[in-house]
Amino acid sequence: MPENSEKKTLKKRKALGKGLGAILGSSNNTETSSSAPQKAVENQSTNITVVEKLDEISIDYVERNPFQPRLEFQDEALKELADSIRAQGIIQPITVRKLTDQQYQIISGERRWRASKMAGLEKIPAYVKGANDTQMLEMALIENIQREDLNPIEVAISYQRLIAECELKQEELGDRVGKKRSTVANYLRLLKLPPEIQSGLRKGVISMGHARALVNVNSIEVQLALYDTVVKSELSVRKTENLVRDIIQGKDPLSAKAKAKKEPLDFEFSRLQRDLSTHFGTQIKIKNADDGKGEINIPYQSIEDLNRILDILKTH
């Protein structure tokens, strides 16, 4: 190969080594056997070096990702994907890290893995990576954030975890995920909303536009009263923004009505209830009696949701 041609090839390969694709691999990779050569790939933006190869592994050796930001998997969508896998197989391999010879942990592709199990597959194609816990967390969160089907609360929790556990500043995080710092800040502000409103946002009862308007109200009681009005009256984002503006300026009777509502818990217990709900991704209720006794209720929506909560408990 001529010297100039070789230099161009090396330059091209270096450019392809940057960004998330260097961590997660390419879907166009045609290596399919366990004897495929290993490649050491360095990500310039994160300083993460991982070793990758494409392999086919037993589906029973794979376990879910404890860092998975997705809180809910729709059963109907999984069934449709399982039907597609039965007919056409796995088009895009999952990505895993190897823990032992018979234990792999998913970095990305949990939905494909679940659907493959549902389809009755015994083996699944996977990119096998070498990564420690911090690298695993960053790869999993960033890869999932860049998908379009995460709800705003799942994205916000992912941003919060990247900042807290990977020690990133908002501006650094914005660079990693390709978002402006203001966009990252807007998502993080959603976590200040009470659990009832966060739950409505996760389920699509309200949009992010509604939530961004509600977060500007300082009083939790007013936020909840306003949320009820928005849902019952099916207010648009524009009408919600106008109502919030009126409340802030003291022009709407909703404010006085909400402030008169009795707080069921004192400040410390209310804050604890909100923090726990955000941490577990579900609407936790705390009941506290005058004698100091009480209970914590952690609801779950499905067996998968219960397993997710149990995984969170195990990691702490």
What is the count of distinct domains? 3
Give the amount of beta strand, in percent: 5-15%
Task: Round the Cα radius of gyration to an integer and report it.
Answer: 23 Å
Q: From the coordinates shown, what is the CATH architecture of the largest domain?
A: Alpha-Beta Complex
**Large-scale geometry:** globular
Instruction: Give the distance, in angstroms, between the N- and C-terminal Cα atoms.
Output: 55 Å
Q: In what order do the strands lie side by side in the largest sheet?
A: 1-2-6-4-5-3
Average pLDDT, all residues: 75
Short description:
The chain is α/β, with parallel strands linked by helices.
Features:
316 residues, alpha/beta, Conserved hypothetical protein from pyrococcus furiosus pfu- 392566-001, ParB domain, 3 domains, two-stranded antiparallel ribbon, 15 helices, 51% helix, 15% strand, globular, disordered N terminus
